Amino acid sequence: MEKLRNGYLFPEISMRREAHQKKYPDAKVISLGIGDTTEPIPSIITSAMAEYSLALSTPEGYQGYGPEKGQKSLRKAIAEKIYPNMGITDTDVFISDGAQCDIARLQMLFGRDVTIAVQDPTFPGYVDTGVIMGQTGAPDESGRYAGIEYMRCAPENAFFPDLATVPRTDVIFFCSPNNPTGHAASRDQLRQLVDFARGNGSIVVFDSAYSSYVSGDQLPRSIYEIPGAREVAIEISSFSKFAGFTGVRLGWAVVPDELLYADGTSVARDFDRVVCTTFNGASSVAQVGGLACLETEEGREAVRRVVGKYKENTRVLVDTFTALGKEVYGGDDSPYVWVRFPGQRSWDVFGEILEKTHVITVPGSGFGPGGEGFIRVSAFNSKEKVVEACARLTSFLA
Amino acid sequence: MEKLRNGYLFPEISMRREAHQKKYPDAKVISLGIGDTTEPIPSIITSAMAEYSLALSTPEGYQGYGPEKGQKSLRKAIAEKIYPNMGITDTDVFISDGAQCDIARLQMLFGRDVTIAVQDPTFPGYVDTGVIMGQTGAPDESGRYAGIEYMRCAPENAFFPDLATVPRTDVIFFCSPNNPTGHAASRDQLRQLVDFARGNGSIVVFDSAYSSYVSGDQLPRSIYEIPGAREVAIEISSFSKFAGFTGVRLGWAVVPDELLYADGTSVARDFDRVVCTTFNGASSVAQVGGLACLETEEGREAVRRVVGKYKENTRVLVDTFTALGKEVYGGDDSPYVWVRFPGQRSWDVFGEILEKTHVITVPGSGFGPGGEGFIRVSAFNSKEKVVEACARLTSFLA
Fold first, then answer.
1. Could you tell me the pLDDT band of residue B293, with boundaries at 50, 70 and 90?
2. How many CA atoms lie less than 13 Å away from B397 in the CB half-sphere?
3. Where in chain B do CATH 3.90.1150.10 domains reside?
4. Strand partners, A117
5. Looking at the partner chain, which of B38, B56, B111 has a beta carbon nearest the beta carbon of A64?
6. Taking 70 as the threshold, does the pLDDT of residue A7 lie above it?
7. Is the Cβ pair A49, B280 closer than 8 Å?
8. How confident is the model at residue A2 (pLDDT cuts 50, 70, 90)?
9. How far apart are CA A363 and CA A349, in angstroms?
10. How far apart are the C-alpha atoms of A177 and A173, rounded to whole Å?
11. Helix H or strand E encompassing B43
């Protein structure tokens, strides 16, 4: 724990926000910071949750413990609607209370003695859970932990590492569309990743929490669109950004039957044991809500509409920063816009923007040393507030 | 993971139940096995959950991420209603998705290099998470893992170990009222435990998931009733058995401000970091339900009534086994009855009872080698089914 000297990124930002609000009590702070959903959940979903909740007060409707890996109906809906024609079945799916929690459970499965690789920059949870598990040495000055392979992903390499130069690790965490860069890996890039993992006997943990933001049909939304991926990849994902479930809490992990250790034994069997031992299943109410998102065309369409609203915000953000002459990445296939401030430090840019515009962003360096010089701007807010934030940013940065 | 050769107890029982049902398709199986609540949740609680769920579809009622450690209102209600006059404040309380999940998070906090002690028998989660974390050696023939201190708790020692003979460990897991024996430690026993931990510089993880089943006012319901406990003890607890939330999922951990490592730094600060990194908070819907259990006298009374129903069942079970001439323990202060079958193996007793009466119990040896020769019988079922199960048990065992 001592090695985790820095605070976790988002609580840190939240403390700075509070300090700012204290300094400027009348300021109308707009958060384009933590990726926290703001749009109401479609009522087809919340009605199902309310109905289920009320039924818990009746002898017929009461339910206690569900299966640790989740209700079969929901696992089946995920297999069929999210992974059509990809060879994923309900038994491969483990329902969870969110992707972040699954990262921790996977790290418990992997244990202290594995080596891991991460994109740089990326969501900090992969590294931080690795540090907690004792997989790493101490951090250097830039914050890189000894023992972790950082795969630089920058505009200069199309946000994809040259795998020929990446040393073998036991596990590769790969987030696409990437948080924070917003880059969605191409089919060819994912093919390279799968081949690399197969060649090295590595497990890929593919985080597709933002897959519903991918535009068009060209880019893969799941790693299982790549042939052979079922033998090397675990996929984790979430209802948080897909259906506004950040507070309701629901996610899933796919651990395919075909994924085996070098000795031929099943990874899914061990993960099942971890889930049964460290988790008692996602809230039954949340699972009912998740099923309502997926089982009818009406539910699916309602969820798509909400994602569409955030995608409109992304467009406004991209246009604003582009008009300001900034290098802007992401946004097409993710709710995040990744903006470069050459020669500046991320926390300084974060601080200046907050001071001058009362807009919260996220400093890119919080996602790894490779994020230095960037900020991440989130589309998760109302259209009105995003437009207002963009007006303030334009006055300040123009 | 390889060391965890045996399946987790409850999924194992569930497989045997399925096999039995296949063999006897017409048998009316009654489960007095896994401690799964069966009584409907009082409507004052589910109405609050339903109302909150529906409000998630409105701009005013929508909420995204809450604080990782839970809503302050709920933390405050727990501090005030569960720990009155014990020096526990809302900042000491971490809301979770259940005690089992908190055990895993605490084990992530402790890491691989700690030594642990557990009661024998006890809830298997403490040992199993320790094995997953790599704290132990291999199991011996009786299932005892090398490196874990097993503190025998049997009728012969009033279910409390002679601490003078127990070696020091970094962490002591202690469950009271104990699952499975049903024994609630006396004030004097807990005083001994706290003194022992203070003398050794150990942390006690006190699991009070069944505290609402304690009868009368003599026995402590929390370790914080013991002076000095705040400096040595973490308490974990749950709404599962208290309010029928086994499926809804809600619990809490108390990590008092006063609990420090040997170097004087705060345990709570590190646990907060683990919670923020590996967990995103309990479902907001569940938290609203939890608050409704605690904030009004009406809610508290409703929850007490449900616990009272299970306690009536416990009485029936105790009377039945007593009338059969069995040695019976527990039941007064817990929903579990612990019955001795001298000279027999637990799994054999479990199997015979299932075969002859179609009643599911839990083999005592599933809780540790010290449970061999016992079975645990749960009061979590309807009165009608408990009475029917008792009639069958009487015919078979008489």
1. very high
2. 23
3. 9-41+299-397
4. A149, A172
5. B38
6. no
7. no
8. confident
9. 7
10. 13
11. helix B43-55
Query: So what's the pLDDT on residue A6?
Result: 61
Span B23-27, mean pLDDT? 97
User: Nearest-CA distance from A271 to chain B in Å?
Assistant: 9
pLDDT at residue B124 is higher than 70: yes
| Average pLDDT over all residues of chain A | 96
ipTM above 0.85, yes or no: yes
Confidence of residue B7 (pLDDT cuts 50, 70, 90): low
Q: What average pLDDT is seen over chain B?
A: 96
- d(CA A398, CA A393) in angstroms, rounded, equals 8
Residues of B in contact with A8 (CB under 8 A): 273, 276-277
Nearest CA in chain B to A104: B278
Distance set, CA A42 to CA A306, B106, B248 (Å): 8, 36, 21
Please give the Cα distance from A89 to B333 (Å, whole number): 45
- Residue pair A57/B46 in contact (Cβ under 8 Å)? The answer is yes
- Do residues B173 and B236 make contact, with C-beta atoms less than 8 angstroms apart? no
> Which neighbouring-strand residues pair with B152?
B120
Q: Is the dihedral of CA B176, B182, B188, B192 positive or negative?
A: negative
Is A63 within 8 Å of chain B by CB?
yes
Residue-level pLDDT at A34: 87
Is A58 part of the contact surface with chain B (CB cutoff 8 Å)?
yes
Give yes or no for A66 touching B (CB within 8 A): yes
What's the CATH class of domain B46-296? alpha beta
Backbone phi, psi, residue A119, to 5°: -70, 155
Contacts of B128 in chain A (CB under 8 A): 277
The pair of three-digit structure tokens given for residue B227, joined into one six-digit string:
């002076």
- Residues A17-48: tens digit of each pLDDT: 999 999 999 999 999 998 899 999 999 999 99
Q: Report CA A385 to chain centroid distance, whole Å.
A: 23
Give A 100-119 residues with CB within 8 A of chain B: 100-101, 103-104, 108-109, 111-112
pLDDT of B336 reads 98
Q: In this complex, is the C-beta atom of B381 within 8 Å of any C-beta atom belonging to chain A? A: no
> Are the CB atoms for A206 and A236 separated by under 8 Å?
yes
Residues making up chain B, counted from first to last: 398
Q: How many CB atoms lie within 10 A of CB B298?
A: 11
CB contact under 8 A, A38 and B274: no
Best interface-test mutation with A: which of B12, B63, B246, B285 has the largest number of A CBs within 10 A?
B285
Q: Could you tell me which chain A residue has the CA closest to the CA of B279?
A: A101
CATH of domain A9-41+299-397: 3.90.1150.10
- Chain B segment 233-262 residues within 8 A of A by beta carbon are 244, 246-249
SS3 B118: strand
Closest partner CB to B40 (pick from A58, A104, A284): A58
CB contact under 8 A, A49 and B285: yes
Question: Is B114 in contact with B135 (CB distance < 8 Å)?
Answer: yes
B266 at interface of A, judged by CB pairs closer than 8 A: no
Chain A interface includes B125 (CB < 8 A) = yes
With 80 as the cut, is the pLDDT of residue B297 above it?
yes
List every span in chain B annotated with CATH 3.40.640.10: 46-296
Residue B37 contacts A, CB cutoff 8 Å? yes
Q: Give the distance from residue B325's alpha carbon to the nearest chain A alpha carbon, in angstroms.
A: 33
CA distance A307 to A335: 9
| Cα B257 to Cα B247: distance, rounded to the nearest angstrom | 31
Cα separation of A241 and A266, whole Å?
31
